[in-house]
Each structure stands twice: as structure tokens, then as C-alpha cells.
């Protein structure tokens, strides 16, 4: 089960994972993709995994903060999947997910790309280089709420499959979305601008019903996790490639990049960074911040150090 159509760029890494599992796991383990939101609505998919209606799903963790507020912590990570795993982020979040929702976290499949704003019209840029987006109606999920409030945006939660029509009809002035998959959806027909800097890493997760996972044979679980570990980093590499393709398509369509620096960049980045952990504490409690912030910070610092070393 997937919150994104299997043909969409954001689902490409999952489709490759399933194809690899099935091609090499005959007689051991097979995965059958049952569909997406046309089968089970987006906001119900995590619950469907939790209750065992489906065994596995891939989707944005941000859709399910209301079910499990701790899922929000993954939004603060800016590290590849292997670094997050090495620093204990995945194990800690998996423990909470299993304990509270009967869902096992297999892997983050959202590393390798980020989020940014796409707008029909250019936002106001002040004389000192700051940006004013207040009053703009921008598509965004629940996980964006604190940031959007800080920017004065009107957040409109629209399913991905309805964004094209919403842009076409002027229901929204822009979209907060990933740095890939936009061209796939054709939104460049209406979008005039991409706004930089990007402000958050992807939060797509691959997860499974915990009871089903624990019921696998040792051979099956070992094979599955070997494939998961292989593909969580292949997903990272694929995202980088797809991001380049999206950028090329945006340029061909005439979409202009607004490269904010100084006060403008600080406004965008600060709206996320300065509200994030406060929002987590309000929704999930101070103990969640105390447990996860050091892990996330360690992963981000390790990733930054590795990047600096080249």
C-alpha cells in the first residue's frame, strides 16, 4: 500500500524495492502492491497497517502525526538513512511505533531530497532581501502547520492528486512539496517560481504490521531486512537523480528560481527550525524531545561532518 500512485516519482524507490524482493525472493518472500489512495484513503493507511488490514505501506510520516505524534521527529533529520540508522534514530522510533501502534519501522525512504515552496506568482521581496509570503494560500500537510503559521501562510491540506486542479482553478497560490515529483504531476503548467532555500528533508517511511513481521521465519525476516538496508540507500541515490530530472523539467517549462539569501533565507529556515521542537513538545511531550532531539542532532552532525570531508 502506498500514499502515492505507484507510477509517481516519489514511489519509484518503493517499486524498485518490491521488484528486487520479488525477483530474488521466489520461494522465500513476495510483496504484492495492492494500490494506493484509490484503495484506502491516505489518512487511513497507517491505521490499516496497524490493524493488519494490509501488511506493509510506504508513505509520508507527516500524514500520521495525529495517530502517533512521535513520527514528527523524523522531519528534523537532514541525514541519509544509513547515518540515521547508525546514530540510533531508526531503532528508537521503531520501538515507539511498535509499542504504541503495532507498526514496525523498516526504513526511511525519504532521504536524498528536500522540501521547498513553489508559487504561481513571486512572493514579495523587501528592500533588505527579506521575503513576505503572508496571506498566500499554500498547500501543506499537518506537519507543516507551525512553519506555515510562522510565515503567515494560509495552509490548505489538499491530497496530492488534487493539487493540479487546485492550481488550475486558483484555489491555492502555491505548494509546499518535495524537490522531486513536481514535473511528474504537471504542476509546472501553473507554477512560476521555485523558492530556495529548501527547508526540510523528506519523511517518507517504509513500515510493516509488527505482528506480521514478527511472524516471518528467520529466513524471511533476514532476507527482507537485507533488502531494506540495500534499498534505503538506493532510494537516496535515486532521489538525487530524480531531483535533477525535476530541475531540468522546471527550467524547460520556464519556472524561475528565487534564491533567497541573508534575511530571506533566515526567514524560511527559521520558520521551520525555530518552531519545530516546540511543536513536537506541544503535541508529543517534553520527554519525546528529550529522547529524540539528541539522536537527530547527532545524525545531522555526523552527516554534515561526512559531507565536509567529501
Automatic annotation (TrEMBL):
Main location: periplasm
Coiled-coil region list: none
Highest rank taxon of the organism: Bacteria
Keyword Signal among UniProt keywords: yes
Protein localization: Periplasm
Keyword tags: Periplasm, Signal
PANTHER family linked: EXTRACYTOPLASMIC SOLUTE RECEPTOR PROTEIN, PTHR33376
The protein's name: TRAP transporter substrate-binding protein DctP
Amino acid at each position: 500500500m502506498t500514499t502515492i500512485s505507484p507510477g509517481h516519482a516519489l514511489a519509484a524507490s518503493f517499486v524498485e524495492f518490491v521488484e528486487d524482493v520479488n525477483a530474488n525472493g521466489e520461494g522465500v518472500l513476495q510483496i504484492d502492491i495492492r494500490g494506493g489512495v484509490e484503495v484506502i484513503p491516505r489518512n487511513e493507511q497507517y491505521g490499516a497497517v496497524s490493524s493488519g488490514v494490509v501488511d506493509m505501506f510506504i508513505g509520508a510520516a507527516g500524514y500520521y502525526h495525529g495517530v502517533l505524534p512521535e513520527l514528527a521527529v523524523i522531519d528534523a533529520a537532514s541525514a541519509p538513512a544509513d547515518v540515521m540508522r547508525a546514530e540510533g534514530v531508526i531503532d528508537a522510533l521503531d520501538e515507539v511505533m511498535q509499542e504504541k501502534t503495532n507498526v514496525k519501522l523498516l526504513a526511511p525512504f525519504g532521504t536524498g531530497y528536500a522540501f521547498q515552496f513553489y508559487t504561481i506568482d513571486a512572493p514579495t521581496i523587501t528592500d533588505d532581501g527579506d521575503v513576505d509570503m503572508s496571506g498566500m494560500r499554500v498547500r501543506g500537510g499537518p506537519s507543516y502547520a507551525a512553519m506555515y503559521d510562522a510565515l503567515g501562510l494560509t495552509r490548505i491540506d489538499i491530497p496530492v492528486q488534487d493539487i493540479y486542479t487546485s492550481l488550475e482553478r486558483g484555489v491555492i497560490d502555491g505548494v509546499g512539496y518535495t524537490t522531486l515529483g513536481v514535473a511528474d504531476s504537471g504542476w509546472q503548467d501553473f507554477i512560476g517560481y521555485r523558492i530556495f532555500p529548501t527547508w526540510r528533508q523528506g519523511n517518507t517511511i517504509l513500515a510493516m504490521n509488527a505482528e506480521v513481521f514478527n511472524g516471518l521465519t528467520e529466513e524471511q525476516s533476514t532476507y527482507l531486512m537485507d533488502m531494506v538496508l540495500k534499498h534505503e540507500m538506493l532510494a537516496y541515490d535515486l532521489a538525487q537523480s530524480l531531483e535533477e530530472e525535476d530541475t531540468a523539467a522546471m527550467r524547460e517549462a520556464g519556472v524561475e528560481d528565487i534564491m533567497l539569501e541573508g534575511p530571506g533565507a533566515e526567514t524560511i529556515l527559521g520558520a521551520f527550525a525555530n518552531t519545530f521542537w516546540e511543536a513536537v513538545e506541544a503535541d508529543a511531550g517534553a520527554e519525546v524531545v528529550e529522547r529524540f532531539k539528541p539522536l537527530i542532532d547527532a545524525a545531522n552532525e555526523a552527516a554534515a561532518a561526512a559531507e565536509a570531508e567529501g
